[in-house]
Design goal:
Family: Belongs to the SKP1 family.
Strand content: under 5%
Number of helices: 8
Distance between the termini: 54 Å
Pathway: Protein modification; protein ubiquitination
Order of helices and strands: HHHHHHHH
Biased composition (Low complexity): 38-55
Shape: elongated
Keywords: Ubl conjugation pathway
Protein name: SKP1-like protein
Mean pLDDT: 83
Low-confidence stretches: 40-44
Helix content: 55-70%
Structural class: mainly alpha
CATH superfamily of the domain at 3-33 and 51-102: Potassium Channel Kv1.1, Chain A
Length: 136
């Protein structure tokens, strides 16, 4: 039984997300086919190194467009990639979320992800005191 067969029978991945996962996998398989044997792979690699640049750029473009979705879809894709053990998709979607919070203040991150600040003023002061180095 394949991961996609398992996903199609699982409540963990809905059909909308599964179709996106399949689209991602098809594109990556078409762009990065596995060679039949390692000897042929070495020969092919040396003769097609410049030809590989175009598909790599195409794949980067595809990935950039693929993750231009709403937050809920990104989070569902992360869960599906983890559940289905698709490392490339998991890395891509996690990096997308990391980029969303990069260089943001805690307040901006809370706003982006709609997170309520439930620290009391005393707790905030204690955290600031314990982590003073981060505020310098």
């Amino acid at each position: 039984m394949t991961a996609l067969t398992t996903a199609s029978r699982s409540p963990n991945v809905d059909s909308k997300i599964l179709s996106k996962v399949i689209k991602y996998c098809k594109k990556h398989v078409q762009t990065n086919p596995k060679p039949a044997n390692s000897g042929a792979a070495a020969d092919a690699k040396s003769s097609t190194s410049t030809a590989d640049a175009a598909p790599a750029e195409d794949l980067k473009s595809f990935d950039a467009e693929f993750v231009k979705v709403d937050q809920a879809t990104i989070f569902d894709l992360i869960l599906a990639a983890n559940y289905l053990n698709i490392k490339g998709l998991l890395d891509l979607t996690c990096q997308t979320v990391a980029d969303m919070i990069k260089d943001k203040t805690p307040e901006k991150i809370r706003k982006i992800f709609n997170i309520k600040n439930d620290f009391t003023p005393e707790e905030k002061a204690e955290i600031r005191k314990e982590n003073q180095w981060a505020f310098e």
